[in-house]
Design a protein that fits this description.
This protein has 334 residues and is mostly helical. The protein contains 12 helices and no strands.
Length: 334
């Protein structure tokens, strides 16, 4: 048993190292994006900036992933699979961070975890455990999807908050006599953050000759926001029935304003209910933690028999059903 402790600590250290590597890579991608955004407003000396060993290491990994991505791009299957990551790419670094880049990153982390799992299993049993290696590969192949999704949800929320500003700028631009391209350029120059990035993609689509209806439909497919769908539907109706685009965007702006006003009112009305809901969700976990802290063996009889496990499963089922029902009761769709 004592010999197993150092091996367990080694495996734990490897797992922590891989998780740290995933976090640092995603963080470096975010910092690089912010750095490019502020480059236009910063002064650079003529001397070449000295990079730290840490930066050089991740620059090598980034270069390796780009080369590997070009190899993976030759596969039609992987190219189609990479399309689901197109929404994560940013306008400024679309050439460096193509969708296939994210697939290459997933394979890199998967094979790295598989390699470390092989080493750990060999040190522990003097044999290579194929099942644990495959599980390690699958775990770290799909782990970045969670980080990408969380980052995208943050971006999506920011776009939802800034979309009304974009519509107001578009409407004012149309009223001042600007055409569609000039209005879109105004939005992408006046705003910053994810909404500016999306309007740069819209501008790029417009330069390729796509109609305004198709462009905003593609915008909705990227962000999956109901407000974006409303704009796309309004432009589709305008294209089929005809009309004044200024009046259409004035109507969209008024609709968004009323919707935001109603959303703010609902948020203030349901604030106390949401607080009680979150408190009731957390309280069972807090009480359970206190009981375990005072008496670590208190729940042992529950897990000593099949009936106890069944009761525990029923309790969990009721707990999650309670969370789902209360969320559905408090949810207000607009």
């Amino acid at each position: 048993m004592p010999k197993m402790v150092p091996i367990f600590l080694l495996m734990l250290a490897m797992l922590f190292g891989i998780l740290l590597l995933v976090f640092v890579i995603v963080n470096e991608m975010q910092e690089a994006k912010l750095s490019r955004r502020f480059d236009a407003y910063s002064l650079h000396t003529s001397e070449e900036q000295v990079q730290s060993i840490f930066d050089q290491f991740f620059a090598c990994i980034n270069s390796f992933l780009k080369r590997w991505g070009r190899v993976l791009k030759k596969s039609r299957l992987l190219s189609r699979y990479a399309l689901k990551y197109e929404k994560y790419s940013v306008y400024e670094n679309q050439e460096e961070r193509e969708p296939i880049y994210y697939v290459a990153l997933k394979f890199f982390l998967g094979f790295l975890a598989m390699f470390l799992s092989v080493i750990a299993s060999f040190l522990r049993t003097k044999h290579v455990l194929l099942l644990s290696s495959v599980l390690a590969f699958l775990l770290f192949f799909f782990l970045p999807d969670i980080l990408f999704f969380l980052e995208f949800q943050k971006k999506k929320k920011q776009i939802e908050q800034d979309l009304m500003k974009a519509v107001m700028i578009l409407n004012n631009s149309f009223k001042s006599g600007k055409n569609i391209m000039q209005a879109i350029v105004t939005v992408k120059n006046e705003l910053d953050g994810p909404i500016s990035d999306e309007f740069k993609k819209i501008y790029l689509d417009m330069t390729y000759g796509l109609s305004l209806e198709v462009v905003f439909q593609r915008f909705y497919e990227r962000v999956k926001l109901e407000d974006a769908k409303y704009i796309a539907s309004s432009l589709t109706l305008l294209n089929k029935t005809g009309g004044n685009i200024t009046n259409v965007f004035s109507s969209i702006e008024k609709s968004f304003y009323n919707k935001k006003k109603m959303r703010d009112e609902l948020k203030s009305i349901t604030a106390s209910s949401l607080f009680v809901f979150r408190l009731l969700v957390v309280l069972p976990l807090v009480f359970t933690g206190f009981i375990l802290l005072l008496n670590p063996t208190y729940f042992n009889p529950l897990f000593s028999s099949f009936a106890g496990w069944c009761l525990f499963g029923i309790l969990l089922l009721f707990y999650f059903a309670y969370i789902w029902i209360i969320k559905k009761v408090l949810e207000v769709k607009m």
